[in-house]
């Protein structure tokens, strides 16, 4: 495994805007400095830094041992967490896929209104390294916010991998035609809003219990992730080191508002 360099931030500009599906927009981001981007694997998370309203260039943070600080604390950018969907060292680009959930959130609004040459900041990618551990059998559960990570992780899977992939997406058109699963993995598709979560939970409950040599990767809205983690831990007794279960967002709460509760859940 590569040594992880100290984190830093990059000012990047939008060079390509691609509508992948009704609810997902891809932004390809460029900076010559990305030639040295400390890429570990696609699917890792990163921070984005968006200029406050009325400005077009965000301040970038100075990274400390734990967290980051601001030279001008009265003019902090908006910070959000996204997924490194792809990295191209030759083209000096990082690709991020944004859910378009309206202009109620600054990150969604930025993606929906993005123009070529718009500026934003990105951090180097964060751990865990690796995110998926080698296993006899896998379970992946993702909503649309976790689809970029899911796609990236599946693309790197061993073709002999076995298990189940469950997706909950707003519409059938949001399922990428390019989604590639190893032959031994089954795809379970659910479409609609959060009202479909009970059907997804039912699907998980009907799978054969996971055992210690298995690995589960669960990401999406909090009320999807929390009961599945409870099933993994309390009913199947899967040890914490054999699963990744991260609420990527919480319906009705902003990133600032949910950040502490998410970390409390993860650290439990
Ligand atoms: C590790 C990690 C990786 C992530 N990767 C991605 C990614 O690659 N792509 C991606 O799109 N998201 C990703 N997310 C989720 C993203 O960080 C959140 O959706 C975030 O809240 C979006 O910020 P915002 O400024 O648009 O909305 P906020 O200002 O945070 O929220 C405003 C309102 O919008 C609601 N909201 C937030 N997200 C959604 C949504 N997806 N659908 C409907 N309503 C929503 C909130 O509940 C709130 O009511 C990731 C999160 C984590 C923790």
Feature tags:
alpha/beta, globular, 19% helix, 268 residues, binds flavin-adenine dinucleotide, Elongation Factor Tu (Ef-tu), domain 3, Rossmann fold
Number of domains: 2
DSSP, total strands: 14
User: What would the CATH topology of the largest domain be?
Assistant: Rossmann fold
CATH architecture of the largest domain: 3-Layer(aba) Sandwich
Rg, nearest Å: 18 Å
Low-confidence stretches: none
- The average pLDDT value, as a whole number, equals 95
Associated small molecules = flavin-adenine dinucleotide
Which structural class should the secondary elements be placed in?
Answer: alpha/beta
Shape annotation: globular
Strand order of the largest sheet: 6-3-9-1-2-8-7
Which H/E pattern describes the elements?
A: EEEEEEEEHEEHEEHEHEH
Distance between the termini: 27 Å
Assign a percent range to the helix content: 10-25%
The CATH class designation of the largest domain is Alpha Beta
Question: What is the H level of CATH, i.e. the homologous superfamily of the largest domain?
Answer: Nucleotide-binding domain of ferredoxin-NADP reductase (FNR) module
**Largest beta sheet, briefly?**
7 strands, antiparallel
Q: How many helical elements?
A: 5
Strand percentage: 25-35%
């Amino acid at each position: 495994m590569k040594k992880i360099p100290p984190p830093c931030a990059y000012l990047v500009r939008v060079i390509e805007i691609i509508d992948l599906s009704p609810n997902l927009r891809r932004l390809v981001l460029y900076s010559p400095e990305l030639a040295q981007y400390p890429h570990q694997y696609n699917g890792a998370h990163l921070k984005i830094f968006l200029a406050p309203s009325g400005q077009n260039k965000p301040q970038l943070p100075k990274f400390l041992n734990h967290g980051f600080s601001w030279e001008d604390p009265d003019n902090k950018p908006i910070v959000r967490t996204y997924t490194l969907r792809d990295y191209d060292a030759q083209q000096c680009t990082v690709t991020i896929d944004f859910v378009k959930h309206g202009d109620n959130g600054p990150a969604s609004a930025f993606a929906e209104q993005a123009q070529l040459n718009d500026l934003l900041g990105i951090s180097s990618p964060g751990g865990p390294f690796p995110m998926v551990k080698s296993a006899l059998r896998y379970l992946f559960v993702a909503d649309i916010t976790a689809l970029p990570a899911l796609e990236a992780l599946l693309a790197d899977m061993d073709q002999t991998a076995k298990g189940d992939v469950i997706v909950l997406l707003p519409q059938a058109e949001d399922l990428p035609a390019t989604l590639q699963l190893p032959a031994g993995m089954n795809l379970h598709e659910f479409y609609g809003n959060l009202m479909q979560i009970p059907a997804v939970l039912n699907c998980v409950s009907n799978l054969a219990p996971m055992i210690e040599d298995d690995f589960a990767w669960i990401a999406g809205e909090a009320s999807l992730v929390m009961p599945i983690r409870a099933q993994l831990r309390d009913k199947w007794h899967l040890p914490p080191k054999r699963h990744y279960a991260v609420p990527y967002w919480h319906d009705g709460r902003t990133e600032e508002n949910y950040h502490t509760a998410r970390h409390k859940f993860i650290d439990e």
